[in-house]
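JOB MANIFEST
job_type = single_chain_structure
chain_count = 1
residues = 361
[input]
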Amino acid sequence: MSDRTVLHVKGRVLAGPEDVRDELWAVDGRITYERPPGEALTVTGWALPGLVDAHCHVGLDQHGPVPDEVSEKQALTDRDAGTLLVRDAGSPSDTRWVDDREDLPKIIRAGRHIARTRRYIRNYAHEIEPGDLVAYVAREARRGDGWVKLVGDWIDRDAGDLAPCWPRGEVEAAIAEAHRLGARVTAHCFAEDSLRDLVEAGIDCIEHATGLTEETIPLFAERGVAIVPTLVNIATFPHMADGGEAKFPDWAAHMRRLYERRYDTVRSAYDAGVPVFVGTDAGGSLAHGLVAAEVAELVKAGIPALDALSATAWGARAWLGRPALEEGAPADLVVYDQDPRADVRVLAAPGRIVLNGRVVG
């Protein structure tokens, strides 16, 4: 037996959207629904699986890679907000050391961003030409944890607006190579024009997805391609447009249009059956710890509260291949003083945070 304290969580254990139990225990860092012998530390409230931020960048800030001590602060900020599972959607830093820390969130890495030369934020990505795309996707598929991150579109300085980064043939070959290596592929996409090619090429997910239209939404739904809208990031589009308008007025106008229809876009995708998951895009220009704000944004867009919760809890964990509050699963959970199903704003005030069976917050 280890030296871990047995933990007893009682009240309402939200083990699934329709699976509500009265109590669980954490023994040796694992969940059990069978009462163990002996005494236990008791925590009461409404328990959810540790929240998921499916678009988060640990090890990155607006200038590029950061030292390990900054990465640690980022991870702790996410943890203290209830995020206990991160899909790191691109980082130039090596954060494998986090895996050895039982007090930090678990990370599923997508390796480093792969972008077209001079078509992304400086110091973030491998910047390459299309002929090298397959090789770099294979490299990052081997380095990551089952995901690869492409930059699907960015501002083309000659055109003065957003434009696709990759020819269709190279994208098809690269995605096929990632799948051969057992990795899924996601892509940063703001605009409309790259989406059809990426989806028809077999991509698994699109980040931001502000360019979805009534023509491409059914294609996403048919292929089961997920979106991570990052609405807390899309809220910065007007500020971005203001900063670039003098040099790129067409781009600025385009960004404002995407912003203005952001809620309609997300709701239309949800209504069509497109899988929607929570991601904040923390770690670039955005602060960490915004998972509750993103869930609230999904609800504001018109997604029902229980489905918005699932997008950061049970559904998100299933999508990423990680367990929720199942027998034998790691005891990663967040306990709230009120019912988050009644008001998702409850997520902004965790009562207790449990990671690997230990109360860490």
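[summary]
The mean pLDDT is 97.
The chain has twelve helices and 20 strands.
exit_status = 0
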